[in-house]
Amino acid sequence: MNDKILNKRIFVVDDDLPSFQLIEELLSRHKVFLKHFTNGKDLMKYIRNEVLPDMIIMDIQLPGVDGLELTKQVKALEPSIPVIAYTSYAMAGDRERCLQSGCDEYVSKPIDLDAFMETVFRYIGD
Questions:
Q1: Can you tell me the distance from the alpha carbon of 119 to that of 105, in angstroms, rounded to the nearest whole number?
Q2: What pTM, to 2 d.p., does this model score?
Q3: Under a CB-based contact definition with an 8 Å cutoff, are residues 26 and 113 in contact?
Q4: Burial bucket for residue 17 (CB in 10 Å: 0-12, 13-18, 19+)
Q5: Cβ pair 79, 68 in contact under 8 A
Q6: pLDDT digits 0-9 by tens, 81-120
Q7: Which CATH code of 3.40.630.40, 3.10.100.10, 3.90.550.10, 3.40.50.2300 fits the domain covering 9-121?
Q8: Are 67 and 87 in contact (CB under 8 A)?
Q9: Cβ distance 107 to 101 under 8 Å?
Q10: If 0-12 CB within 10 Å is exposed, 13-18 middle and 19+ buried, where does residue 41 land?
């Protein structure tokens, strides 16, 4: 087992349960602490009142505040938190829009498993 991300806190913001479950399955062998949020309001309340994550994996298409606006809010609170955008609505210009909104990286759905894990390790691996 590669333990580069052992005990890291990763928050996943996605209103699609199967997408979260896939990420949960991918990361479960690394013994990370995963917390799932289905909307931006709950995420912001949690990180303001509890503990900051080591990384946020952010769906772009969320109910209420979208993932791009939510990323701006997260970065205003704590710019050092890596935010990885991911979306199934991959269109020309999406990557650039995500990066301009403050996301550190962009991954499209369906997730390329190897590329996804490499991205996670790059941003929070020791």
A1: 8
A2: 0.91
A3: yes
A4: exposed
A5: no
A6: 999 998 776 666 778 888 888 999 988 888 888 989 999 9
A7: 3.40.50.2300
A8: yes
A9: no
A10: middle
